[in-house]
Design brief:
The protein is α+β, with helices and mostly antiparallel strands. The protein contains three helices and seven strands; from the N terminus they run ββαααβββββ. It has one domain: PAS domain (Beta-Lactamase), CATH 3.30.450. Strands 1, 2, 3, 4, 5, 6 and 7 form a seven-stranded antiparallel sheet that branches.
């Protein structure tokens, strides 16, 4: 599953930049241009925002493996990576990522999990 967020410093918010077909179908909302707080569940929003902010502030590469998220009572395991992006080649102002997992029936909102989290300064 591919995804990317762009950071808007004036508004101090992340907005969806692009998402793969699987994520677009799952969230059932327009990802591109959507505000993170509208795309994420209320229980996951702050954790996601903190990690995206850390990725651009470092800038840092981020990786997790193991349990990625929980949908209903189903624990979904796999691997997630995220890298900072820059529109001007100097300052990080976005994050692109990918998640690899065996797809469950995508029936509800996911609670993201950050098992075996690793950060690497770039």
């Amino acid at each position: 599953m591919l995804w990317a967020f762009q950071y808007y410093p004036d508004a101090e918010e992340f907005r969806g930049w692009f998402a793969g077909a699987k994520l677009n179908k799952w969230i059932d909302k327009s990802f591109s241009g959507g505000r993170l707080q509208d795309l994420a569940s209320s229980t996951s929003y702050e954790n996601i925002r903190q990690r995206l902010t850390k990725a651009i502030a470092g800038p840092s590469f981020w990786r997790t493996s193991g349990c990625l998220f929980i949908v209903d009572d189903l624990e979904v395991r796999g691997e997630r990576i995220a890298l900072p992006m820059s529109s001007n080649g100097k300052l990080a102002d976005g994050v692109v990522g990918a998640s690899d997992f065996v797809s469950p029936p995508l029936l509800g909102m996911a609670e993201l999990v950050y098992e075996n989290e690793e950060w690497y300064e770039i």
